[in-house]
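Internal tracking record. Fields below are filled automatically when a chain is submitted to the structure queue. Please do not edit lines marked as system-generated. If the sequence contains nonstandard residues, flag them in the REMARKS field before resubmitting.
Queue: standard
Priority: normal
Entity type: single polypeptide chain
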Amino acid sequence: MHHPPSGEMEEFFEDSEIFVTGGSGVVGKALVEKLLRSCNVRRIYVLLRPRKQLTAEQRLVRLRQATVFHVLAAQKPEELDKIVAVPGDVSLPGLGIDPSMMQRMKGVSLVYHCAATVRFDEPLREALRLNVGGTLEALKFAETLPKLRAFVHVSTFYSNPYLTRVEPKYYSSPMDWRLCLRLIDDIADDGMLNALTRKLIVGFPNTYTFTKNLAESLVNDYRHRLPVIVYRPSIVLFAVDDPSPGFSPSLMGAMGLFALVGAGILKTVYLGKDIRLDITPQDIGIKSMLCYTKMGYEIYRQGPPADLPVYLSSSCTHVPHTFTQIAEQMDTLDLWRDVAFEKNLMIPGCHYTDRRWAYQFLVFTKQILPALILDLLLRIFGRKPVLMSAVRKAYQTLEVMQPFMFNNWDSPGVTDMESLSKHSEGSAFNLDAFNHPDIHGLVIQSCGNMLYSIRTHLLREDPKTLGRSKRILRIKVFLYRLLRLFLLYKLILWLWRSYMAHLF
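SYSTEM-GENERATED OUTPUT FOLLOWS
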């Protein structure tokens, strides 16, 4: 198999016009950022849905201000002018793109389809419309592009969750995607469709993995008509060092849970003791995907392949730790105290358990009760109560993530990892993290950097306030310990008095 050396990578993307759907999501934004910073592309069209009184142009202004561009904005701000907003919507025919805009986009040679609903518990109708219907519209649009070199479909490592080992290959889908899309039109009643959902998605923990699976089978059906490839990353979390160490993209999903632990709001997590957290660091995922784009293009130059090219990204072969080990190490090293958030409520830190009753008990005593008391105080002082809703949201997020908290999936890891890292050495696409001599050290260091990035980029707290936040946290810890000692003293006193009263 031919692998592109780094110079060839820059050459491959040089002066290209690229179209990205889902460009305002985590993967989409990071992709746009890397293309602008490391490849001299001509233009990047980003599909943006006008929403909440904002036009696509206004959303583009917001997109350019995203924190992921903080290095690019400092080094090459003029590159951001290459992003062009395309008003449209993946759930509309033709992606809802205006014919004159389509004409303007005739020079597009690479399409990255990143748009999807990532809500695990999305109702089936929505999930089908966006994840399957949206993919169909993106493929149909790609068919109108005369210069198309590759269509990259961003799927997920969890698109075949009923398997225990996932290989970088296409697995046939348990249902026909055409039939499922027909269901949306034929069954107008949501209640009926939701009742059907449980029967349809047998073997899938949620509508997300089910519809991502169907979308892959749809892409597979197009492999003779278009140069399509499928990329399956696992959970996309912080970056190792690109654009900056530990860069954290969004408060959605797992990142949000880390932020809530740091804020002292999330105090307990229910998960299996031997569960590995399968992560794809944002920068490594994007660099690999760009390399796979070129590899896929090379395959199709030989004519349509017998099998759909599928590429995996999973950390199960090179990060041996379980999630609990990493979390406990973060507690032992007191990473939470080193990066004390201004917006912290109680003392950060978290208890991990695989016993349901213990979890429910801790949720009630350490999350619900304090949130109720503090919300009541906020109300008394005429402020808006906020905690109970944060606690409820965290609880629901963890409930829908349950299948991933009690299952490990095995795989050969990152597809072609050795040759990718060899060929990208010393370039803007380097994957040095794979060859790090101390993976354990790197994981812990990255977690520290991630917390710092959550503080700076997501909570937008000034690094200058760190010293003060640490002092406040130390005082809180001291007061908390005093309170515990006082309660213990009261308990012992009461027991002693009861005992003495009993004796005499």
